[in-house]
Amino acid sequence: MYTLVIIRHGQSQWNKKNLFCGWTDVDLTEKGFEDARAAGRLLKKEGYTFDICYTSVLKRAIHTAYAVLDEMDLNWIPVIKDYHLNERHYGALQGKNKTEMADKYGEEQVLQWRRSYDVRPPVLPDGDERLPENQPVYKEIMKTVKLPHTECLKDTVARVAPYFEQVIKPEIQKGKKVLIAAHGNSIRALMKYIEDMPEEEIVGINIPTATPMIYHLSDDFRVIDRSFLGDQEAIKAAIEAVKNQSAKSSGK
Ligand SMILES: O=C(O)[C@@H](CO)OP(=O)(O)O
Predict the structure, then answer these.
(1) Tens digit of pLDDT for each residue in 173-182?
(2) Percent of the chain with pLDDT strictly greater than 70
(3) Where are the domains of the chain?
(4) Which atom of ligand 1 is nearest to the CA of 90?
(5) What contacts 24+ positions apart, CB below 8 Å, involve 111-114?
(6) Ligand 1 atom 8 nearest Cα
């Protein structure tokens, strides 16, 4: 049996402001750092350890990974940063407030952008300085790969799944204990792939920040169980809060 731990980054500056974030490289808040540290302490207390960590090229996930590892005295393990684990690209919604968008376009529309499986948010326009081709971090990658200007979850699965299958899974199969520090929707994409989850089910999944998710997998990689580590009532409330981020402001 294998154990795999996946964690969403702690609260980011834009989570706090309720803005669509996607590939925008914003940092954690103080609370985000502290929650990530608390997750590291909890993992240590519960006897977890890691041999290798995978994260995205976005600092909210990288800083979460290191906060967790620091609390576990595991700063020395390899931390692999790869854009395949980036958040879903949120196109032209990046930087927009989720409540304001719900007030303007209706909750249904925003829910469709946030959680439908195959509806892409509006694309970032040509020439926009936020496009991957205008970011130094993607310069080398862009020579061989076409990077997105928007993504639906299906697109995110298409980049996350092969990375998991070809890079991460072989390490788990070698017996390495793996931590993945990623993002709400890149984690949903991983779950969809690992669990072979139906589309109807993944649309209803919301991931709380800085909460370790534990997978037990059989030797042939079937899911034995999946659970969140921590206070289950608090986790339930955190999941609801993520779900409700795109509610209209009261009175609208
Ligand atoms: O803004 C984002 O990039 C994501 C995660 O924070 O938001 P949502 O939960 O709406 O998909």
Answers:
(1) 999 999 999 9
(2) 99
(3) 2-246
(4) 3
(5) 111/246, 114/246
(6) 114
- Tens of pLDDT, residue by residue over 218-228, are 999 999 999 99
Ligand 1: which residue has its CA nearest to atom 5? 184
DSSP the chain: -EEEEEEE---BHHHHHTB--TT----B-HHHHHHHHHHHHHHHHTT---SEEEE-SSHHHHHHHHHHHHHTT-TTS-EEE-GGGSPPP-GGGTT-BHHHHHHHH-HHHHHHHHH-SSPPPPPPPTT-TTSGGGSGGGTTGGGT-PPPSS--HHHHHHHHHHHIIIIIHHHHHTT--EEEEE-HHHHHHHHHHHHT--HHHHTT----TT--EEEEE-TT--EEEEEE-S-HHHHHHHHHHHHGGGPPPTT-
Average pLDDT in the 72-91 region? 98
For the Cβ of 184 lying below 6 angstroms from any atom of ligand 1, the answer is: yes
Query: CATH number of 2-246: 3.40.50.1240, 3.90.1200.10, 3.30.428.10, 3.30.390.50?
Result: 3.40.50.1240
Over residues 16-41, mean pLDDT:
98
> Residue 29 has what pLDDT?
98
151 is catalytic: no
The binding site for substrate consists of: 8-15, 60, 87-90, 98, 114-115, 184-185
Question: What pLDDT sits at residue 251?
Answer: 62
Q: 199 an active-site residue?
A: no
CA–CA gap between residue 175 and residue 155 (Å, rounded): 30
pLDDT, greater one: 250 or 59: 59
